[in-house]
Amino acid sequence: MLRRTVFGLARSATSSVTSLTAFRPLSTTSTMSSSGTESPSTTPMADAIREKITANLQPRTLQIHNDSHLHAHHSAMRGVTSQETHFRVIISSDAFRGKMQPARHRLVYGLLKDEMAKEGGIHALQLRTMTLEEEEKRQQKEEAEEKARTCKD
């Protein structure tokens, strides 16, 4: 089974040391069991988001972050058994060319309307949508900032 795990920096409450921590897998591909049957995905909502966005927008960049664990204590989440309710999605695609942010977001919301309407489905969706040119400018800016930081040291 192929798993992609997001690694991030986490700071311990009792220590000022920052360490590399593995967070729960964001996506898992379906795998075949020894009996030849396909085992179900452990991330069906993230998989649906990935499939719909990929099929319709052909993104260069698609990052899907499941932030549900950060909101599990909210009153609106009481009784909800789904572990996939809050997502942060970063997309760069030529499909956004010539569209303002609200139109880009409406496009993505339209693709995911069934997942948002479903009981236990997507409760919150944070989007960052960019054209390929905007993504390149952002990367160049980040590289320049990193270079400036390393020159100071």
Automatic annotation (TrEMBL):
Question: Which Gene3D superfamilies does the UniProt entry name for this protein?
Answer: BolA-like
Q: Where is this region: Disordered?
A: 133-153
Top-level taxon of the source organism: Eukaryota
Name any GO cellular component annotation: mitochondrial matrix
Q: In its UniProt record, which GO terms are filed under biological process?
A: [4Fe-4S] cluster assembly
**PANTHER family from the entry?**
BOLA-LIKE PROTEIN 1 (PTHR46230:SF7), PTHR46230
Homology family: Belongs to the BolA/IbaG family.
The name of this protein is: BolA-like protein
Species name for this entry? Answer: Sordaria macrospora
